[in-house]
Design a protein that fits this description.
Layout: H1 21-29, E1 65-70, E2 76-79, H2 80-84, E3 89-96, E4 119-128, H3 130-136, E5 144-155, E6 158-167, H4 168-173, E7 177-182, E8 185-186, E9 196-198, E10 211-217, H5 224-227, E11 231-232, E12 241-242, E13 249-252, E14 257-258, E15 265-268, E16 270-279, E17 286-293, E18 296-299, E19 301-307, E20 310-320, E21 323-333, E22 356-363
Parallel strand pairs: 1-10, 15-22
Antiparallel strand pairs: 1-2, 3-4, 4-7, 5-6, 5-10, 7-8, 7-9, 11-12, 13-16, 14-15, 16-20, 17-18, 17-21, 19-20, 21-22
The protein binds the ligand Nc1nc2c(c(=O)[nH]1)N[C@H]1C(S)=C(S)[C@@H](COP(=O)(O)O)O[C@H]1N2 and molybdenum atom.
Length: 368
């Protein structure tokens, strides 16, 4: 028996607000950012969201090597000491899982049921990848460069190492970083220790963790995580469009205090400072953030961005009047892209950048 998962279970239809054991197992492993940490420019490492398909490999960094192989003129390997000795860059980058928001789309795709919380910003430290690719020197007919982690597992009956690819021309435009540290500390095991890439401005799936192989390919890369998933599809026959750069999006720190189970909020009347973050893909600037109160939109104050590839802080002083309210936020970037009110349909539940809505009950100050 080589592959016991050759006939995988088929994905059942989903029902709104009802989650089965497989979805709950995924949700327990892949924790989300605490939305209250959106008040900070940098997400504390322990509160950064996690998305891991298989198991977290436990790697001895003293033995770990990165191999440049395949159709390079000058293939070589580097150990971690050599990588740490290369020119060092620290970049704040916002990572967001492309499945973020999946649970709010209807029908919900059967997978990791993210609400709003699969996003975070870290200071990533490492060395730019481009000079290393140049040193390895791809042969003339190379079209794709693949990035493979040491984590192996099965999906839809296919056993594979988690791997992704970028074309030579994508690599020229993207400031890909080979990363060994996060927020001033060596990478935590679950975030890719000892080595990962970070692809700024793209959804998280491109930022391969536990990286040990960079391969130059003269044919199109056909790894499972490139071809079978992370594609926008309308139906199962659809070949789909690859998921690439982040769509414009914004979130707010939920104001006031929550009810334990419903997570609805209670706020005191009067001036309430609403804080949040907004971001977009490919280094595009956020030009406008609006704050919605029961469907009436006002301009929020755009404070400033944490970095070219990191989110932008915004705030709005809301004069909260007693009663029940729906609060929302909506960002627009420099290309004019903005967030839809309703989640766009996608078969895999990818790229849902619909606006966030939070229900709050405002109590008159003298009633509390
Ligand atoms: N090797 C490997 N790299 C991976 C993954 C994985 O499962 N294995 N998950 C990807 C996905 S889908 C996302 S969103 C990001 C999440 O990074 P984080 O867990 O550090 O937040 O890692 C990406 N890199
Ligand atoms: Mo992801």
């Amino acid at each position: 028996m080589n592959n016991p998962f050759i006939c995988p279970i088929s994905k059942p239809d989903t029902e709104k607000d009802i989650y089965d054991d497989a979805e709950r197992r995924l949700a327990n492993r892949n924790s989300g950012t605490l939305l209250e940490t959106l008040a900070l420019d940098i997400t504390p490492s322990g509160a950064h969201y996690l998305l891991t398909h298989f198991d977290t490999p436990i790697i001895d960094s003293n033995k770990h090597k990165l191999y440049f192989e395949g159709a390079f003129e000058n293939p070589f390997a580097l150990d971690m000491d050599q990588i740490r000795g290369l020119p060092e860059v620290t970049m704040p980058v916002t990572l967001e899982c492309s499945g973020n928001g999946r649970a709010h789309a209807s029908p919900r795709a059967y997978s990791m049921p993210w609400g709003y919380e699969a996003v975070g910003t870290s200071e990533w430290t490492g060395t730019p990848l481009a000079p290393l690719i140049a040193q390895a020197n791809p042969k003339e007919d190379v079209i794709d460069i693949s990035f493979t982690g040491v984590d192996f597992g099965y999906d839809a009956g296919v056993g594979h190492y988690f791997g992704r690819s970028l074309t030579i021309s994508q690599l020229e435009k993207l400031d890909v970083l080979l990363v060994h540290s996060m927020n001033g500390q060596p990478l935590l095991p679950q975030h890719g220790a000892p080595l990962r890439i970070v692809v700024p401005g793209w959804y998280g799936m491109a930022s391969v963790k536990w990286l040990n192989k960079i391969e130059a390919l003269t044919e199109k890369y056909e790894g499972f995580q490139q071809i079978k998933t992370y594609r926008f599809r309308q139906n199962p026959e659809d070949e789909g469009r690859p998921v690439t750069s982040l769509k414009v999006k914004s979130l707010m720190v939920p104001p006031g205090v929550p009810d334990w189970l419903s997570r609805d909020r209670c706020v005191k009347s009067g001036n309430v400072t609403i804080m949040g973050k907004a971001w977009s893909g490919s280094g595009h600037k956020i030009t406008k953030v609006e704050f919605g109160i029961d469907g009436h939109w006002k301009d929020a104050q755009v404070i400033g961005r944490t970095g070219k590839y990191a989110w932008t802080a915004w705030q709005y002083i809301w004069n909260a009047e007693p009663g029940e309210h729906i609060l929302q936020c909506r960002a627009t970037d420099e290309t004019g892209e903005t967030q839809p009110i309703d989640p766009p349909f996608d078969l895999g539940g990818f790229g849902n950048n619909a606006i966030q809505s939070i229900k709050v009950f405002v109590q008159a100050r003298d009633q509390i």
